[in-house]
Amino acid sequence: MWYYMGKMLPAQPAQAQQATQPVAVPSVPTVSANPIFMELDPFTVTLNRNGFSRVLYVGFTLRFEDQASMERVSKYLPEARSRILIELSSLNPETIHDKETPDLIKEAVKRVLLPAFYPEPYTQHISNVLFTNFVVQ
Hints:
The protein is an alpha+beta fold. It has one domain (36-136): Tetrahydropterin Synthase, Chain A (2-Layer Sandwich). 31% of the residues lie in helices and 26% in strands. The protein contains four helices and four strands. Strands 1, 2, 3 and 4 form a four-stranded antiparallel sheet that branches. The longest helix is centred in the middle third of the chain and has 13 residues, at 77-89. The N and C termini lie far apart (80 Å). The relative contact order is 0.19. Controls the rotational direction of flagella during chemotaxis. Belongs to the FliL family. InterPro entries: FliL. One of its GO terms (cellular component) is bacterial-type flagellum basal body.
């Protein structure tokens, strides 16, 4: 079989032949060197449940994986803010001071902004939700 090659090569063990062949590197998604951030105006929400009341004042900055996701959220900002506001208003005022609540809020914001905005067919790719304000009274 070696005689079909353009030039004659001395016979090599199979392991040595594999070592000389280039190894295919799996493709990795390209991450932008410049982060893509969008700051949202703060939200003020009154949390009421079972006669217990708190006021939550919270602001976010969203970090996007791609420019198109940021542009979609910007284009549909009233709907995005509405989704976040509805999610924040469902929080329990009795557990708002718990240590894990900020992480739950961050995941909830990512979750409610993930679905596509009608009539857009694309979902948003948000890599992080950062707090810029977090006040509970």
